[in-house]
Design goal:
About 40% of the residues lie in helices and about 20% in strands. By secondary structure, the chain is α+β, with helices and mostly antiparallel strands. The radius of gyration is 23 Å and the shape is globular. It holds the Pfam family MU117. Keywords: Signal.
């Protein structure tokens, strides 16, 4: 009887360890696989200091026929239009990026700041920015 109880206890402990190892693995996988999502978030200054017109002008500064394949931002007034990806960047035309930014206003619908996830690991973001300059290539 003592042997059966010991085996049962060992099996229970093994299951307990397996459970916690699985839980830890899932947490690590979730942290590594963070993905972008559509939202209307942004700086706390979006409400007072950013106009939708500035944001529209910022993303209009992406050039239709130009291919963007790395972090890029375009600025107008106090709004920055950011193209960023988690991991590798696809080659995306300025015309396609403009549609991704437009999605923030037409489909979500945000008033000023926000982000739109696309292509699995990329994001088009409109946000408040003070004293910012365009960045990324081509510039």
């Amino acid at each position: 009887m003592k042997t059966a109880a010991l085996k049962q206890k060992s099996g229970g402990e093994a299951m307990h360890v397996l459970f916690w190892m699985t839980a830890a693995l899932l947490v690590l996988m979730a942290a590594e696989g963070e993905s972008y999502s559509d939202n209307c978030d942004g700086s706390g200054l979006c409400g007072c200091c950013v106009s939708q017109n500035d944001c529209r002008n910022a993303f209009a500064r992406y050039t239709d026929g130009t291919i963007y394949s790395g972090y890029t931002s375009r600025v107008s007034g106090h709004c920055t239009a950011i193209f960023q990806c988690d991991g590798s960047y696809p080659s995306v035309s300025g015309a396609v990026l403009k549609q991704q930014f437009l999605h923030i206003y037409q489909n979500q619908p945000c008033q000023k700041c926000g982000s739109h996830a696309f292509n699995g690991n990329c994001e088009a973001t409109l946000n408040y920015c003070a004293s910012c300059r365009d960045s990324g290539n081509p510039n």
